[in-house]
Amino acid sequence: MASNVNPTVRRRRLGMELRKLREDKGMTAEQVAERLLVSQSKISRLENGRRSISQRDVRDLCDVYEVEDRRLIDSLMQMAKDSRQQGWWHAFGDIPYSVYIGLETDAASLRTYEPLVIPGLLQTTEYAQALVRGAWPETAPADVDKRVQVRMHRQKRLSETENNNPELGPLRLWAVIDEAALSRRVGDAQLMIRQLEYLIEQSEQPHVTVQVMPFSLGAHPGVNGQYAILEFPDASDSTVVYIEGVTSDLYLEKANDVQKYSVMYEHLRAQALNVDATRQFISDTIKKYQDRGE
Fold first, then answer.
1. Residue 40's Cα: distance from chain center in Å?
2. Which of 46, 82, 174, 225 is most buried, with most CB under 10 Å away?
3. How far apart are CA 165 and CA 183, in angstroms?
4. d(CA 275, CA 75)
5. Nearest Cα to 134, choosing from 117, 151, 150, 154?
């Protein structure tokens, strides 16, 4: 049974606390690594939340930083324990983007730009199946099913009644989608019609905003590719910019990087069609698929 504790977020929060303790002590990661006889890269991975943190790691680091506050030590030790529990996604086995899923599960809002496909949180099951098969042609049928099941499970964050994290409420989603994602036929025409109808349906939820970026608008701030910005309800959790890759993903948390992507996203939202014009554009695209009858 998966725990309600989100290990990804706990690791990030614990890593930030440990980094703060090191900086308050005036030590570099290299100096800490020398004291503990470990590699500097291990200290960096512990602080950026990319590696599980054991209670022994916390104990050793608190010794180095001469932490005397017992309540603080106990709190950090509990966070380390929580960070090693399993989230709901672990029940599906090895998921390549499990770090992202952990972040998305605890995010309060998500701003995403998709240049080629419909965003995963807004996909129908049929569309997701056809997309995964096309994008990963060598993937075994069982693995295709697993990826699709995970994607459908993630969509519970958009539901008031089936939310994975009811304390947060539904995820506030803002999606800017390039016209290419609507025009690119994934599966047959009927599948695309159902997908686009579902996209309109989802866009009518009060916490979901969808805007289309038509070809006619030319160059825009999203031409460099897909990215997402995740924000969290707890002020201690920094905003994360997520950029998906083929073999590895990129997570940006530095304030300067986040600011640049946030400004770029504001330009995207300003240039894209407004909500009403977007729904009309999607409806017109549906008619094109109907007329072609492919």
1. 28
2. 46
3. 34
4. 45
5. 117
Kindly report, residue by residue over 123-137, the tens digit of the pLDDT. 999 999 999 999 888
CA neighbor of 180 nearest in space, from 214, 231, 155: 214
Tokens of 252: 């940006």
Contact 211, 203 (CB under 8 A): no
Amino acid 1: pLDDT? 34
- How far apart, in whole angstroms, are the C-alpha atoms of residue 32 and residue 58? 13
Q: What is the pTM of this model?
A: 0.78
Model pLDDT for residues 222-281, shown as the tens digit of each residue: 888 999 999 988 777 789 999 988 777 888 888 899 999 999 999 999 999 999 999 999
SS3 68: coil
DSSP single-letter state for residue 137: T
Q: Euclidean distance between the first and final Cα of the chain, in Å?
A: 45
Q: What is the DSSP letter of 219?
A: S
Q: Cα–Cα distance between 289 and 189 in angstroms, integer?
A: 6
- At residue 265's C-alpha, the angle toward residues 287 and 208, to 5°, is 50
AA letter at 171: L
Question: Any residues with CB less than 8 A from the CB of 257 and at least 6 apart, and which?
Answer: 241
